[in-house]
Amino acid sequence: MFSMYPKDGRRTPPSPAARRLALLDRDRHLRNPVTHGAYVATVFDAVEPTYDRFTRVFSFGMDARWKRELLDLARDMTPRDAVCVDLATGTGDLAVGAAAIAPRGRVIGVDFSRGMLGAARRRIGPAAPIRLAAGDMMHLPLAAESADLVTAAYGFRNVADPAAAVAEVRRVLRPGGVLVTLDFYRPASRVWRGLFLRYLGTAGALVGWVWHGVAATYGYIAPSLEGWHTAAGFAQLLEGQGLRVTQQRTHLGGGIGVHVATKPRTS
User: Fold this and answer.
1) Model confidence pLDDT, tens digit, residues 172-187
2) CB 237, CB 41: distance < 8 Å
3) Could you give the CA distance from residue 40 to residue 29 in angstroms, rounded to a whole number?
4) What is the pTM of this model?
């Protein structure tokens, strides 16, 4: 049974990052491409201590199943000596999964939240063949055509210019390379969309307040979807940036989507 409340029943005082977040005007910062990234980084710095637990509680345990699905799809298309890049690596769970499906290869986890990178380092430890790097998905610190596989869970929705981030993925993928993504999407059904966003907004704000003393920590998810794509719309964005979508799977009535796309071998 999942519980929303801390084990000791007491609310943790707001962290410095959570206090900074509470002072920011969310809508103004997210509308401005210059401040968008800084706002999202502050969100993830604030939620880092509880992020893994939150994804389990908030998804009723389904997040782990969706990530296993992503990795299973990637495994079928990834050489064992592949160079893998995990974008918005967070606490590093997908980076660890990528290392397992490419045991003779290399994995690079990229995130723009220093707090999340710290959590990933603690998860991974010193022995794993995984390198972590601070970086922006719109300006990846990677050479062109250097990766066989790119994974991203809940990443593209959080950048100021998703098309630019997809273009960067196309740049760093080798011809024939694969992108596999998992994210929230706006359900196509207007009725279900309203219910889905209401749940995300209300439950996220409540958990943010109980766990961090600041509703905006997890209350950010629903607003991030307001101008975001449906799963089909994101597939169109991928195609528009020169990738070829080979699979699209949806869950929760279109609220969650998994996409597989490849970089053509010839332009």
Assistant:
1) 999 999 999 999 999 9
2) no
3) 9
4) 0.92
